[in-house]
User: Fold ATPase AAA-type core domain-containing protein from Agrilactobacillus composti DSM 18527 = JCM 14202.
Amino acid sequence: MNIALIGPHGVGKTILGKAAAKLTNLNYFSIDEARSQYFIKYGYDPRQAEQYIRQNDTVALFRYWKPYAIATMKEILPAKDSTLFDLGSGILIDPTDDEVADIQDLTAATNTRMILMLPSTDLATNKQILLKQGIYTEITEKFLTHYLSHHITKYIFYTEGHTKAENIDRLVTMIRDIQAV
Assistant:
C-alpha cells in the first residue's frame, strides 16, 4: 500500500511526510524533488517555468506544472509500493472533473490512499494561519477552494494546535490506521 500526501504549500507535507515515512518503514518520494527527472519526459520546458517565475505568476506556473505532475503520478504510482508520496498542491489547481476522476481511479488502482493535509477544519482559519506564515497565495486559495468542491479523499489531517513532534506522531498513527484497514 502507498500513501499520498496532498495539501496547500507550507502545510507540512514534506517535513512531516519524510519523518512519517521513516517511522512507518515507507519509502519517501517527492514529486517536487523529482520534477526535473520526470517532467522532461513529458515535454516540460524549464525555460517556460522560469518565465512564469520571472513574471511572479505562480498560478500560471502551477497550471503549467499540473499536466506533468499528473503524467508523473501515472508513471510512478503503479511502479512503486510501500511508498509515501508527497504530491504537493499542484495537482489540484483548477481541477476538471475528469482530472479528479483520473486521480481517484489511479489511486484506487495502485492501492494508494490520499491524505489531505490542512492547518484547520475551517477555511477562514486556514487562510489566517497560512497568511501568518507568509505562505498564503492565490495558489493556496485555489487549492482550498477546489478541494472543497471535489472532495478527492476521505482522509484529512489537520495540523493546527499541535507541535511538529505531535503532528509526526499523529500522522504516523493515521498512516498505520489506514494500513490496518
Remarks:
- Strands lie at 2-6, 27-30, 83-88, 112-118, 155-158.
- DSSP finds eight helices and five strands in the chain.
- The chain has one domain: 2-180.
